[in-house]
Amino acid sequence: MSKAILTPANVLLAVLLFVAFAQMTAVYLLMQTPWTGINAVAGTLPDTVVVESIDADSPAAGKLPVGTVLTGVQTAQGLLKLAPLLYDFPPLSPATFAQLDAFYQRQATLHRAFTDPVGVTFVTVTGENVTLTPLLYTPLSALPLTFWLLSLINLISPLVGVLVWTYRPNQQASALLLMHGLFYYLFVMGGVCVVASEFYLPPEILQQVLLLQVAGIGIAAPLMVLILCYAPSPLVRGNWLLWLTLGGSALTIVNYHYHWFESPGHMYYSQHPLIYIGASIAIILQWRRTRQQPVERAALLVLATSFMLPSTLIVAIHVIPILFGKLPLVGNTIILMLFLLIAVGLAVGILRYRLFDIEFWWLKSLLWLLGGCLVAAIDLSVTALFQLSDSYALGISVIIAGFLYFPLRQWLLGKVIPAEKQNLQDFLPAFSSSLSDAVSQDTFEQRWLESLQQRFHPLHLEPLPETITHTQLSDNGLHLQIPSLDNTRSYRLSGKQRAARLFHKTDVKNTESLLTVARMASNASEMRQQAIMEERRRIMHDLHDSLGSKLLTLTHQLPDPNHKESAKQALMTLRDTIRLSLKTTPLRLEDHLADWRAEIAERADAAGVTLHWQQTGDASIHALTPKLVLEITQLLRETVSNALKHAAPAQLSLRFQMDASTLQILVGNDGRVSDPATWNAGTGLGSIQTRIARLGGDVRFELRDKPKLHNRVVLRIPLQSPQGL
């Protein structure tokens, strides 16, 4: 039943009703205040205010000219100063209950003056007295534009809370943000009542307004710390911390209203540095917990920046001056807007919207804050130490900050933000070099994968059957999906820099540039290979028609059997050369082992020799280039020819031994045996030695005595052939 009630529509309706009630309450309170129609600002002279404008049809219309400088109002007790105006004064700044009572008493005195039946008498700086009778109630139309604008703009906070809760209803942080938005709006409504006041607020109304502010910010501020305790990952289990925080906040609010006890330093603001410290501790703990979790780490950066940047400014320019008994550096309106930035930033962090951009803008925010704080700190120090005028102190501060800020900025850019180890320009030479020796589509694809690994060091690289046209980000930058060069599949990279970072838009742009270069190189290589193949086909066709036909004629016409066999071998070599030269992809070793066995078996059978064939190792894992296959074929033919021609054996044995990187061929025969040291290096032996050297292998000629005396040739051929094969 509760789930049916808490639907997005019902929650939105409840929030809008809450906002409307808070708005109507603020309007009602303001309309209960006396109205003169005078819009005043602080004057340049001490303790004065200046009439900036006067509303038409107001009690002051025609009685006070615009620009009049007022010193106060005349009362039975004497001159009562109007400065500081309430809208420009922090109403929560009284540090003790005695100061707060005095603040209320001053508002009560002003209220008696403005509600005097005979009217209120304004005293100008020239000593002139101007008496007018204010209206006892402020018309709705007289409420200033600032009131409506601030109410409307700060409506963003509760609406953002509803939006986040709608998208993440089961996440505790989203519920806390919704609560934060509601209580923050209470604080805003109290604040805009102060900002919209004319000269003062009646004490009973001011007391209600301040209670709204204390209740609103007293709960909204700790809720921000709680959000950091539950997002991006929970630091505590259960709701005990929530109830403890709400209980402490309620105690603070009740204490402020009933004046039970005063906290050291300031009865209200002394708790705000503690909230700031608590949030900082939560951020540090979250930072440690989100190690090797790039999405959570990016969300934390959003949350931390959203809280720390405005909060640091609020503490620095508003809270700290009040704690030291000074007026804040900015007015109430700016403080309200800074609090609004916190709510929006927290929403982005919880929703994890565009987290892949965080690494760029969070440092810009940090540098902006650092630069401003550095100039302000140096300016205050120079002014205090050397007693210089404001202009000289500011100029010197800017110069000193320039020498300190820019080196520090460069250090932060290099250390705080983990930049790419290589920019795109530095990576291009190695990338181009890796593609330069690729000759086939498969090789280009393999080089492309190797380049992606080298560029991003992903935690996982997974091929996908899905085809895409452009590089895409997914899961807030956790994944980067990249097309293959031939666009028949795609690859998903997960966890940039071993899951230390997120992919971002710059990675998409750079990858698209690399993809374009790789495809251009692949297409150019394919066109070059096609041109080479066309020329090779033409040459092979000419060889087959001319030299091939002549060799075929010789195999039939030569009378000498040896010559006929040589012509036949030459014809077979020519045909193999033509066939293999037209191949562009690697060939399977196991297929050619079968071809070699069939050919050698046929020759052995024709010579009346028994063939013994053995294979050890897995031939299916090896792929050979066409040129390597042709070279091994020629080596086998020449070795077998030498054995059959010169040794006249009864048995011929061939054993192929294969491991991961080497092919070893042992060719033995039991014919006429002699010591290899006595052999003359004729054409056959020289050809074998030349070919094996070209392959990067070696050859041994052995005289063996087991199982009986025989000669053996050992060919060792690396399967990872040298460049150029």
From TrEMBL:
Protein name per the record: histidine kinase
GO molecular function: protein histidine kinase activity
Top-rank taxon, per record: Bacteria
Keyword Kinase among record annotations: yes
GO biological process, one term: phosphorelay signal transduction system
Keywords: Kinase, Membrane, Transferase, Transmembrane, Transmembrane helix, Two-component regulatory system
EC number: 2.7.13.3
Reactions it catalyzes: ATP + protein L-histidine = ADP + protein N-phospho-L-histidine
Top EC class of this enzyme: transferase
Parts of the chain that traverse the membrane: 145-165, 177-197, 209-228, 240-258, 270-287, 299-324, 330-353, 365-386, 392-408
Keyword Transferase: yes
